[in-house]
Design brief:
With 115 residues, the protein is of the alpha+beta class. It contains 5 helices and 3 strands; from the N terminus they run H-H-E-H-H-E-E-H. It has a 3-stranded antiparallel sheet. Helix 3 crosses helix 4. The radius of gyration is 23 Å and the shape is rod-shaped. 20% of the residues are buried.
């Protein structure tokens, strides 16, 4: 869960292309900062800054394994964003269904008046 409990924090964090690339890289497996930096056109300090933003948004977790610091996707990190998208989609579909029913009823009414 994000630190503020809102999908906005998640979307803001994912709004930066480099952060999306980091999330994509972490889908494969947990990775240390150095390996992420090797995969991206950003140095270790830049990757670390992006990881802090992703971590504060609840998208990434940090684990120490021996002397290595590994970053992994946080379980449920995208739940807030997913719920927001589902709510938006459900609202849009509901509005579409209501408008469709209104138009059909209007056409049926017009058709009955013509006959």
């Amino acid at each position: 869960m994000s630190s503020t409990g809102s999908a906005e924090v998640v979307f803001d964090a994912l709004g930066e292309p480099m952060r999306r690339r980091i999330v994509e890289a972490l889908r494969e497996r947990p990775l240390p900062v150095g390996e992420l930096a090797d995969r991206l056109p950003v140095g270790r300090p830049g990757v670390s800054k992006h990881l802090r933003v992703l971590q504060s948004a609840g998208l990434v977790e940090h684990h120490s394994v021996g002397t290595r610091n590994l970053y992994a996707l946080a379980p449920g990190g995208l739940d807030l964003a997913q719920r927001w998208l589902v709510d938006m989609w459900d609202t849009a579909l509901g509005d579409f269904a209501a408008e469709t029913e209104r138009v059909i009823a209007e056409r049926e009414s017009d058709h009955q008046e013509e006959t």
